[in-house]
Each structure stands twice: as structure tokens, then as C-alpha cells.
Amino acid sequence: MAHFEGIAFDQALIDGRAVAEVVRAQVAIDVGEFRSEFGRAPGLGTLLVGDDPASATYIRMKHRACEEVGIASIHRTLPADATQEDVERVTHELVADDAVDGVLVQVPLPAGLDPEPVILAVPPTKDVDGFHPWNLGAIASTLDGIASCTPQGVMTLLDAYDVPLVGAEAVVVGRSRTVGMPMAMLLLQRNATVTVTHHLTRDLAKATREADVLIVAAGVPGLITADMVKPGAVVVDIGTTHTPDGLRGDVLFDDVAKVARLVSPVPGGVGPMTIATLLQSTLKLAQARARARA
Amino acid sequence: MAHFEGIAFDQALIDGRAVAEVVRAQVAIDVGEFRSEFGRAPGLGTLLVGDDPASATYIRMKHRACEEVGIASIHRTLPADATQEDVERVTHELVADDAVDGVLVQVPLPAGLDPEPVILAVPPTKDVDGFHPWNLGAIASTLDGIASCTPQGVMTLLDAYDVPLVGAEAVVVGRSRTVGMPMAMLLLQRNATVTVTHHLTRDLAKATREADVLIVAAGVPGLITADMVKPGAVVVDIGTTHTPDGLRGDVLFDDVAKVARLVSPVPGGVGPMTIATLLQSTLKLAQARARARA
Predict the structure, then answer these.
(1) Can you give the CATH number for the domain in which B51 is found?
(2) Same domain, yes or no, for A166 and A91?
(3) CB-nearest partner of B136 from A141, A177, A196
(4) Residue A178 belongs to domain with CATH number
(5) Fewest C-beta in 10 Å: which of A137, A180, B146, B183?
């Protein structure tokens, strides 16, 4: 686990870039030890389907991050008109590749492709994204599973800032399988009292105002305003929406920063943590696989 | 699905026995159809380890319930001094038995035995108790999984009484893998706003007083008193503790019945639903297995 004592944190800002840098430096050290012990690099297999520019950018960022810490990338691409069978076949090929410890299929897939069988095609032992039901169930059971990168990255952020969680009232806005649900489970594992809200919640402001720790993953730019936040709360913004004015989060940062003790910005908050956590998870899967063989 | 229009419900009491009877009658009809179509009875394989009288009673009740609806029971027992290997071996034998559609290992196991590998020994396709991480993850992902019998039975009760769930504030007390966690996920699937509380929750009464639907699975007799309940709320008591004075629930029934719109008693509330749901789940697994072969 990385240590964060060296960082001089701004009082109100959760600096995801600074924390991610510490995490990546630690992963680089651990990857070095892995390579000496097992004589190979941990490997991340990725599949990009189609030519969505945002997806292509994310994949490039992930590859660069891998390279920086010494993780090998094994990359496959398919055109936008790839069939369901193509996507599943290449996914299976990545899974079968002995050099691949974790398999990441970049989402969203182009319209018309069903992500469900693709998710199930990646076994829990190579499920670096933590999307497989097994991994979600393992987290819900407090077994040792791979949590989806974004919520796991949020936990690392909260720990870096020593945010108390035991008995804290945590409110999660959003309940997606990849973010909101695992987020809620990770907070429960750490003994917070957890409320999950969503677009059918009757009085969202009433719920969020109870939160000592408020995690927002709604994908609705500017959804959370100062009047919805308890004074002194810690607010983490997972929402990222591409708008004509650039990347926007779910939290009105300048407004909320006036009442919250800590707020994470977009960009520069959770985003860098997601990629840093992907590196951690790839290494974790590589270690588990190498040890299972030893 | 069973229909409940015929039952004359008492205004304040959630009558689990009456609802369970309707469910069992429907399962009996569906089992009859299954037998005509596939030429065999659905089969429930059970394993009882040791001589705990309560566990022996539960197993007997389950067998009797199976018999009444036409489900075959395949029963194995092991002495209290059985080894971990014995328990896992017999579990594997039940899983391998072609006549067995669902495998139930009665918990708790005697002290010294680790339930974890036993739970993982039952594959999701025969996991009638819904204890396997896959099934928990499937529920969290709104995939089609087998939910643990007790929370699934609670959902049936809530539906029988037409309790509105969309946007309702639901509070679950307890977060066990087999009850509290799947309960929270099932309520989220039905679009309630869900709060999960536990023994480290700072102000339990504050949380429970917000609940339109309060589900209590703490195992602490008499934990929930009238002052902790919102007037007009629906309260379901999952707690069952064997005391010198008999079976006690987590809810002080007479007290809470004064403020709640509906309360489930112990006994006669959730208990009968757990067994009725076990029958439903055994049939569901049998149908899935038979169809996968057809």
C-alpha cells in the first residue's frame, strides 16, 4: 500500500493527481519486484472496438500508464462494424493469452453490441475491471475480490485524506453495476452506514444533506449544489460528462467548496485514480496468478 | 407467480403463514407441470452436519414442505465430528447427483468447520440458497440470479401487501451476506432508496425513523421500539432468536404495531416465507437445468 505522508494537501481540494502519482510510484516498485521474482512483466490485455475518440484516448492513457510502471500492454482493436462474435472471440483470445493477467474491454461498446456476454467471457481471475458478477458478489460478501477501478480508487483517495468511515453516514448517488453498487459495498466493508440513491429517489437533497461522505456518480453535470451538502462533509465527484465546455463533473465545485471540508474536482480528482487503480489491480491479478502456479 | 387476492388480510399484521400457503399451492401446481413435462420431480439435496436440535428441526420442516409440493428430497447427514474434507466431499456428491437441482447445506456448521469452501463448492446453477458470490453479484447487477430465500421471501410478502417501493425510503438493519446485503439489493432493484445500517451505525433510531419500509435483520431481540418507527411505516422482522421464552424477533411487535401500518410477527411472519421461497427456488433451478438440456 502506498503512503501519503509526503503530500502537502490543500485544505479543501482532494488532489487526485497527487495521490495517483504516489500510487503509481508504489506500483512501479512492486512491478519491479514481481519481474525479479517471476521473470516476466505483469500484462494488461485491452480491446478497443470502434473509433470513439474518447474511448481511444482512454485506452492510450491506460497504455502509457502501464508503460511507465513496467506493465506490458497487449492491445487488440476491432472496427466499429465488428460483430458480437468478433468481440467475444477476441476477448476469449486475450483471456487465453498466457502473457495477459488482466483483460479490459473498453466500454461503452458501439451501439448494437451486447456487453453482457463480453463481461461474462472474462473470468474473475482475469477480470481487472471487476465487472464480473463473481467479483461484485465477492465484494458484497467481504471476500477478497477485485473491485471496479473507479470505486476502489475513491477508497484510496478517502484513505489518503484520512476520512473517517466507521459509523459515518455515506450517501452514494447512482447505483450502476460498475460504480455506484461496488462503491456502496466498499463503504459498507469499511463500516460506514450507507444510503444508495438514484434517479427515482424522491428527495435527493434530503438524502445528500445527511451525508458525512457524499459520493456522486450520476452523470448529471452540476447536479450537486451547496444547499445539498452538509457543512464539513467530504464530497467526491465521480461524474464526468463531455460537454461543449469541456469535461464536467456532477458537483458544482466552486459552490460546494464553500460548505464542504473536502471536494474532489473534475478533472484532477477521481479520474487519475481510476487509471492508477487499474495498474494496482493488474499487478494484484498477476501476483495471484503467479502464486497459484508456484 | 402466486396471486394473493383471495386473502383477507388483517389491517396491521403481515401474515406470513397465509402468504406462504398461497406460494406453496402455486409451487405444487408448477411442480406438477414440471413432472409431466420432464418426467421427474425437482430434487432438493440437503446436508445436515452434527446434532444441533434447531438445525435438525429446520431440515425436517424443509423436507416436509418439499414432500407436500412434490419436490424430492435427497438427504445426507454427517456426525458433529465430521472433518472439513467430509463436509466438502458430501457437498460435491450432492452437486454431482443428477437427481439434485438445488443443494442446501444447513448452517451454521459445527464450530471448527469453515463454511466458505462449502459455499463455493455449490456452483451457481445448483445454489438454491443464493449464497454463492456469483448469485449475490448477479442480484447486485440486476441479472437473473437466485436470491437468498429469506430476503426473496420478504419481497414476496411486500408484494402480497402491495407495499409501494419505487422511490420509497427503505432501511435495512443488518448487512449479512445471506440476508441484509441481498435484501438491500433486491429493494434497489425495485427502485427504493436504500440505507444499510449495522451495529456500528452511530444513530440507528435516526436512520430507522426515516424508513417507509423498515426491514430488520439484526438478531437482537426487541431492538426496534415504537419510537424508532415512522408512523405509517411497513416493518418486516427477519430476526429470530431462540430464548428461554421462545422465539423472539428484533421488533417489539405490540409496541411497534401502534405506529406502523403493517408489521410482521415472529413467529408467523418471515419464517414461513423462507421455506416457501426455498421451494420456489428449487423449482426455478430445476426448470433452468431442464431447459438448458432440452
Answers:
(1) 3.40.50.10860
(2) no
(3) A141
(4) 3.40.50.720
(5) A180
Cα distance between residue B137 and residue B155, in whole Å: 18
Over residues A204-237, the pLDDT tens digits come to: 999 999 999 999 999 999 999 999 999 999 999 9
Q: Indicate if the alpha-carbon torsion angle A117, A121, A125, A129 is positive or negative.
A: negative
In a domain, A8, yes or no: no
CB B280 within 8 A of CB B27: yes
pLDDT tens-digit profile of B69-113?
999 999 999 999 999 999 999 999 999 999 999 999 999 999 999
Q: Which residue range(s) make up the domain with A213? A: 149-271
pLDDT at A294: 80
Residue of B nearest to A190 (CA): B200
Tell me whether residue B86 is one of the annotated catalytic residues.
no
Average pLDDT of the residues of chain B: 94
Kindly write down the DSSP assignment for every residue of A48-110, as one continuous string. Answer: EES--HHHHHHHHHHHHHHHHHT-EEEEEEE-TT--HHHHHHHHHHHHH-TT-SEEEE-SSPP
- Residues B134-177: tens digit of each pLDDT: 888 888 876 778 999 999 999 999 999 999 999 999 999 999 99
| Chain B positions touching chain A (beta carbons under 8 Å) | 116, 132-138, 140-143, 145, 166-169, 175, 177, 181, 184-185, 188, 191, 193-198, 200-202, 207
Cell numbers 444447513 correspond to what residue?
B106
Does any domain span residue B3?
no
Query: Is residue B160 located within the same domain as residue B104?
Result: no
Instruction: Tell whether B15 is covered by a domain.
Output: no
Residue type, B240: T
How close does chain B come to A142, measured CA to CA in Å?
8
B200 to chain A, closest Cα gap in Å: 5
Continuous H helices in chain B = 16-38, 53-69, 84-96, 115-121, 133-140, 149-160, 180-189, 204-208, 253-256, 270-293
A170 and A265: one domain? yes
Instruction: Please determine, for residue B241, whether its predicted confidence score (pLDDT) is greater than 80.
Output: yes
Does A18 fall in a domain? Answer: no
Q: CB-CB: which of B168, B177, B194 is closest to A140?
A: B177
Number of inter-chain CB pairs under 8 A, A vs B: 104
- What is the length of chain B? 294
Total domains in the fold of chain B: 2
| CA dihedral angle for residue B283, residue B284, residue B285, residue B289, rounded to 10 degrees | 100
Interface contact B140-A181, CB threshold 8 A: yes
The band of A4, judged by pLDDT with boundaries at 50, 70 and 90, is low
Q: How far apart are the first and last CA of chain A?
A: 23
Confidence label for B9 from pLDDT (cuts 50, 70 and 90): low
Mutation to test the B interface, candidates A131, A136, A143, A187, most B Cβ within 10 Å: A136
ipTM of the complex: 0.89
